[in-house]
Amino acid sequence: MPPVTVLILAPTLPDGAGHFEHVLDAARTALAEHHRHGFLAAGASEALIRREPPDSTPFGSRLQRLVRGLSNSGPAGLVVLGAGSIPLADARDLAEFVAAAAADAPGALANQRYSADAIAIARADVVLPGLPPELDSDNALPRWLAEGAGVPVADLRRRRHLAMDVDSPLDALLLADTQVGPILPKLDAADAGLVLGAMAALRVVAADPGGELLLAGRVSSADLVWVERNTRSRTRAWIEERGMRTASAGALVGRPNRRPVRSVLGELLEREGVGALGSIVASMADGALIDSRVLMAHRFGAAERGWPAPEDRFASDLLLANRVRDPWLAELTASAAEASVPVMLGAHALVGPGVRNVLGARRAGGGHAAGWRAGA
């Protein structure tokens, strides 16, 4: 089998990083080492952790530089993933990535074709020299490989556990009861209390045959089916902006998105005011899980560098409005935290594979979530 190199990428902490940025960094550091050992056990020749500054360097340029640094021509077999990616991957999953990278002909295997967090590339020495330096994210790499380089791309999208990604301390919190939970940092009660209360209340909603649960954002059909099969409540879903992170690859191959990121919920908040989030949700459902990154992309544009700072986003995910400096996001967070029904805000994982961790398996019994907050 040709040798396979695994590159595990993690950003270094910026100067002046906040408390929640340190929590996320600790989680990614632990997961990077977990992945290193796992890929070596799965047959990789080497597994390297690379810490990179969180600057404006596009992913394409960064990956080209890292690959050139491995050897004169770059490795023939390459697996690239972020440190927080595929935390629930098992030995079989990792072995399939290694085997795909070791193939003799150019090809690729991603955890998700349309928004990859981990990808194996066979004959990377032949394929990657043509990678556009301006490709801005790893999510878009499979699309460029298929549409720009003509490389066959397979994926493991049916294994929903491989779609989980740790992009926020909330995502690490959702993994607390999984096999990787023991290696992840723990949030104290002051940080996690509000969001754990909302999560408990959402489980009550999910167990109530008369309840209605709202999912908003980048919800996949597979996760929606899981919710419908494993909860007793009715489900309302606003599915929008799936694949928004792969738009850059489309532009590079001459097929750009025809319009910027738009959100129905974002439009409502523009009309009613961002502080109306809680009342809008309460008029539609008994509880909600909302992909706040779609709302940020609607308001600030698809480029993450234009969004509120990471520390603000992470505090918002934990419903800590008083620790969010950006006025718009602080008001959105306060409205969610003070709503008359439980509302959680987060990144893709919250409304995607992490929804299983939020709601748990089907539960007997019922009960209403009215007055869900402590003391209400």
Briefly characterize the structure.
This protein is an alpha/beta fold.
Query: How large is the radius of gyration?
Result: 21 Å
- Helix-strand pattern, N to C? EHEHEHEEHHEHHEHEHHHEHHHEHH
Major β-sheet profile:
6 strands, mixed
Strands, total number: 10
Shape: globular
Beta strand %: 5-15%
* Proportion in helices: 25-40%
Low-confidence stretches: 248-252, 361-376
- Mean model confidence by pLDDT: 90
Cα end-to-end separation: 62 Å
Strand order of the largest sheet: 2-1-3-5-4-6
| Tally of individual helices | 16
Number of domains: 2
Overall SS class: alpha/beta
Pick out its properties.
Spore Coat Polysaccharide Biosynthesis Protein SpsA, Chain A; six-stranded mixed β-sheet; 10 strands; 40% helix
How would you explain this protein's 3D organization?
With 376 residues, this protein is an alpha/beta fold. The chain has two domains: 4-163, Spore Coat Polysaccharide Biosynthesis Protein SpsA, Chain A (Alpha-Beta Complex); 188-359, no CATH class. Helices cover 40% and strands 14% of the residues. The chain has 16 helices and ten strands. The chain has helices at 19-41, 59-68, 91-101, 124-127, 141-147, 169-174, 189-206, 221-230, 247-252, 264-272, 277-284, 292-300, 310-317, 327-337, 348-351, 355-359, and strands spanning 4-11, 46-52, 77-82, 107-110, 118-122, 153-155, 212-217, 234-239, 287-291, 343-346. The protein has a six-stranded mixed β-sheet, with helices on both faces. A four-stranded parallel β-sheet has the order 8-7-9-10, with helices on both faces. Helix 8 links the parallel strand 7 and strand 8 (234-239). Helix 13 runs parallel beside helix 14. The chain is globular and about 60 Å long. The model is unreliable at 248-252 and 361-376 (pLDDT under 50).
